[in-house]
Amino acid sequence: MSAQIWPPISHEQLIKEEEDSLAAELAWLLESLQEVLASLKSGLEECLALLNIKEPGTTLALSTLRSETVKGFVTRDISIRLPSLPPPRSLPSYPLRISSPLPLPQLSALLNLLNQALDIIDISTWTGDPTNGPFISGQLRLLADTIDEAKAVMKGGEDVIGGKWWEDDFAGDET
Question: What is the pLDDT, as a whole number, of residue 103?
């Protein structure tokens, strides 16, 4: 199929019109991308707020690497509730007494990666040139890599940050 332009224009004029059309389309795409980035930033901020809850009683689900099924719940006031172990009579769960903070490297890494993703969005929107196609392309690649790394940290495994946390010594150096 061929397309003809009426009235006919010169080849140079046709190339110039195509370039102008592509530039206008790129400008439109970059402008609409800013709305998408604002929406993504809002979603990432919600995730960050859910992970950074300071009030006691916040609940995190427990699962294993082999199965996504919920094995139990851990609350931030450090109590545990397992279906296979009935709680004491007057309590809804077993309270745990921990003398020092229990670091969760996967959670720390996830918080760090979410903050990095938010920084990338801010740079793409405010600091850098949001109308520069190559700059935005590089920022989107960096953002995709950061989000992929955050997904890998959430999935777990031995090749990610905090991978074999059960083998680490949290007691510290006792020599």
Answer: 65
CA distance linking residue 32 with residue 143, whole number of Å: 17
The pLDDT, as a whole number, for residue 175 is: 45
Q: How far apart are the first and last CA of the chain?
A: 80
- Does residue 99 surpass a pLDDT of 90? no
pTM value is: 0.65
Task: State the alpha helices, DSSP H only, in 67-164.
Answer: 105-122, 133-155
The type of residue at 68 is: E
pLDDT tens digits along 27-64:
999 999 999 999 999 999 998 887 775 655 566 677 77
DSSP conformational letter for 86: P
CA distance 123 to 119: 6
The token pair at 141 is: 């690649």
d(CA 122, CA 131): 14
Q: Which residue has the tokens 């006031």?
A: 77
d(CA 36, CA 50): 21
Mean pLDDT across 66-78: 66
| Residue of 98, 106, 107, 96 whose CA lies nearest to 74 | 96
Q: Which residue carries 């709680």 as its tokens?
A: 87
Return the structure tokens found at 74. Answer: 């851990």
**Residue 44, burial from CB neighbour count under 10 angstroms (0-12, 13-18, 19+):** buried
